[in-house]
Amino acid sequence: MRCTRCREEAWVEVRRHNAAYCGDCFERFFRDQVERAIGHEKMFSKEDRILVAVSGGKDSLALWDVLLDLGYVADGLYIDLGIGEYSGNSRVMSERFAAARERTLHISSLDQSYGVTVPLIAEQTRRAPCSGCGLAKRYLFNREAAERGYDVVATGHNLDDEAATLLGNVLHWQSGYLARQAPVLEAEDAGLVRKVKPLYRLSEHETAAYAVIKGIEYVVEECPNAVGAKSILFKEALNLLERQSPGTKQTFLFGFLDKARSAFAEGDPHELRPCIECEQPTTTERCAFCRLLTETRQPKRPFRGRRRVRRGGGTGPRPAPAQA
Q1: Residue 315 domain-assigned?
Q2: CA-CA distance, 207 to 216, in Å (whole number)?
Q3: Which structural domain range is residue 95 located in?
Q4: Looking at the predicted structure, is the pLDDT value of residue 311 above 50?
Q5: Theoretical Cys-Cys bridge with 314: which of 131, 169, 301, 310, CB 3.0 to 4.6 Å?
Q6: Cα distances (angstroms) measured from residue 133 to each of 24, 85, 226
């Protein structure tokens, strides 16, 4: 297989574009896709201060790397979620990357700042770990960026992530989430910092290939809390379709962004106000993160299981069958 551009031996195949690239040409392709995303969506300029949300994984570190190569002013933010050895390894990889490129990496610890961790949140609230984790990260991304004076938060969500999220939201018709699913979420006066996803045009396989070609060390293992997550199931379903019909993920996501998202956005009016406890932007009196902290810090109630409902409307154990 030969490189589509230079005809040298190809290293990376991009089937949805019916193309393949050698290492140098793939780097160029990757940068072109990121620049196209930034320009088309007007994500930020060279004058903006960008805070990259880094996890130590391939996507976020590849994003930070390519933004620096393109000449943007980009620092990193690592959030220590307290997920045992996994969080420790992720932090080390993030710190190594920042040191090698002589860039600032801000560290925010959920435990040190709020006295909770993702495992504790899951245990006390009986939420799925990914639910509490996602809520905490979104809150801290915005708070840290606003308090440190950054203009925009960039996350490493790729094409696979966005297509899987879209599939889940469509299957459950989550109209509020569909209204806000976009490569750019604009800043608002109430203190909401602009959020952008410059990798939304690139697949997970492509970000991994870029990291390998550039020699970026990253955490290979998946988060232990991700086992059984619905997002993985949605990715597997889309991967099956992609193997049979290359370009399915891109067509699905881009078609929604071009033709359907505006209809959901028009029907999603919301007014932000400061949370009465932390003063971060929220649509309710108390923000979801403050409510989560309260729920986590309350004594755990004993779990009694679900009560069975007998025919006729009563509750309690089902009566034993009559003996013949």
Answers
A1: no
A2: 11
A3: 44-221+229-297
A4: no
A5: 310
A6: 37, 16, 11
Closest to 154 in 3D by CA, of 292, 44, 250: 44
Give the integer Cα–Cα distance in Å for 44 and 196: 9
Residue with tokens 């989550």: 174
- Two tokens, residue 149: 């004076």
Report pLDDT digits (tens) over 81-113.
999 999 999 999 999 999 999 999 999 999 999
24 assigned to some structural domain: no
How many domains does the chain divide into?
Answer: 1
What CATH number has the domain bearing residue 178?
3.40.50.620
In a domain, 317, yes or no: no
The DSSP line for 174-218 is -HHHHHH-SSEE--BTTTBPEEE-TTTTS-HHHHHHHHHHHT---
Q: What percent of the chain has pLDDT over 70?
A: 91
User: Which residue has 């619905």 as its token pair?
Assistant: 230
Strand, coil or helix: what is 105?
strand
Span 140-172, pLDDT tens digits: 999 999 999 999 999 999 999 999 999 999 999
In a domain, 4, yes or no: no
Check residue 321 and give its pLDDT.
41
| Buried b or exposed e, range 158-191, using 16+ CB within 10 angstroms | bbbbbbbbbbebbeeeeeebbbebbbbeebeeeb
